[in-house]
Structures are given as C-alpha cells and as structure tokens.
Amino acid sequence: MTNYQGLIDSALACSMNQLAQMSTEDLTEWTQGTSRADSWVKELPQVKALMQEKEQVFSQNKNLAQENLRKRPLLEQRRDAVLAAYEAAVNAKKKYAEKKAELDRFCDQRSLDTSLALLEAAAAEAEENSEVLAGNFLSGSISLDEFVGKFTEAKKLAHLRKVKCEKLQEILYNKSGA
Fold first, then answer.
1. What DSSP string describes the chain?
2. What is the SS3 assignment for 148-175?
3. CB proximity list for 45: less than 8 A, separation 6 or greater
4. The whole model's pTM is what?
5. Which residues form a coiled coil (predicted)?
6. What are 125-130's contacts with CB under 8 Å, separation 24+?
7. End-to-end CA distance of the chain
C-alpha cells in the first residue's frame, strides 16, 4: 500500500511548482473552468499512481470474491459433512450410554443372581453339615457336649444363611418388579 501522506505532499509540491510557472492569464482561466482544473489534477503522476493502485485493489478484491464464490460449494459440502459427523457422534454417544446402562443393569442383576446362588449353596451346605452332625451324634461318633456346641453353631449358621437368601430374593423381586 502506498503512503498516502507522502503522495499528497509530493502532489502538492509538484502542483505548486507547476502553478508557480503559470502565467496570470493561465491561472485566471484555470480557476474559472473546473474541467481544466479537474483534468490537470487527474494528470498528476501521483493521482495516476493512486488511480492505478485503486484499480489493482478493486481487481484483487474482485478476484478474491470470485475465488471465494468458487470455493463456496466445497465449503458447504465440508460443513455438511462435519455436521453429519457431529450428529453421528452424538447418536453414537447416546447409543453407547444406553448400552452401557443396559450392561450395568445386566451386570448388577447377574451379580445379585450369582450372589444369591452362592448364598443358597452355602445355606444348603450349612444345613447339610448340621444333618451330618446329627447323624454322627445318633451313631455315637461324638459326645453330647460336643454335639450340642457344634450343632447349635451349624444350625445358627444355616438359619442366618437361609434368612439372608430370603432377604436377597426379596430384593431381587422388588428390583425386577420396579
């Protein structure tokens, strides 16, 4: 870009020099006819340079505008592709969240079902141990004092496990009904 103040100063100096060389008649004629003054100003090299620069800037601006218009379909196509990819990502995230929630529910359910099965097996084992103790007592393999201590503990453990199984079954029933 041109230094406009420098051009103005240069044009003014050139104009003053040319005006100083004019005769009084030329100056009178020049001041009375605006068309001559206009053409004289337009013929100044500095003004011509500004006009050329103006044309170049307009031409560059026009070329940039045309290039932008040529690129517009590609830009719109890519924008649409980005929007579609964004929507796909949002949908994928939503599906992921749904599947994860479903998996979490399934894992929670499996975990509780597995716990219930293990607890039921442990309760049955404790009940079986108490029956074995009773059988050993009846066959005379263990004494009365030993039988009472071990049988009481075995029945207590079997009963606690049975109560826990029932409570867990109730929790599972309420959870599946909800």
1. ---HHHHHHHHHHHHHHHHHHS-HHHHHHHHH-HHHHHHHHHTSHHHHHHHHHHHHHHHHHHHHHHHHHHHHHHHHHHHHHHHHHHHHHHHHHHHHHHHHHHHHHHHHHHHHHHHHHHHHHHHHHHHHHHHHHHHHHHHTSS-HHHHHHHHHHHHHHHHHHHHHHHHHHHHHHHHHH-
2. HHHHHHHHHHHHHHHHHHHHHHHHHHHH
3. 14
4. 0.40
5. 47-136
6. 126/154, 126/157, 126/158, 126/161, 127/158, 127/162, 129/154, 129/158, 130/154, 130/155, 130/158
7. 76
Largest CA distance in the chain: 155
Cα–Cα distance for residue pair 143/123, rounded to 1 Å: 25
Q: Which residues contact 137 (CB under 8 A, 6 or more apart)?
A: 144, 147, 151
The conformational region for residue 140 under phi > 0 = left, psi -120 to 50 = alpha, else beta, is left
Question: What confidence tens digit (pLDDT) does each residue in 122-166 have?
Answer: 999 999 999 999 999 999 998 999 999 999 999 999 999 999 999
